[in-house]
TrEMBL record:
Annotated protein name in UniProt: Holin
A Pfam family the protein falls into: Phage_holin_5_1
InterPro entries on file: Phage_A118_holin/antiholin
Length: 88
């Protein structure tokens, strides 16, 4: 099953790149990848719907990459370091 998931993640990544080149803004690409992952999970993962959705979200997150996830956290979590006014 791991090989199939790897192939699905590669397909989701390729579809996401195509959608991005079609004009969808980069900030929406993690959401697009998750939607594609859930769709792939529903069609290609065996089990009940909750299991399919869980694996689909995991595949979508894997396809979007950890770098995109950290940027979302940085934007909403405000975890960037700020220099003090005194320069210390």
């Amino acid at each position: 099953m791991m090989i199939e998931m790897g192939i699905i993640i590669a397909v989701i990544t390729a579809l996401g790149e195509g959608i991005k080149k079609a004009g969808v803004p980069k900030k929406f690409m993690p959401v697009v990848s998750i939607v594609l992952g859930v769709t792939g999970g529903l069609f290609f993962v065996d089990g009940d719907v909750a299991n399919q959705v869980f694996y689909g979200v995991a595949m979508g997150l894997g396809a979007s990459g950890l770098f995109d996830i950290s940027k979302v956290k940085n934007t909403f979590g405000n975890s960037k370091k700020v220099k003090s006014v005194s320069g210390k």
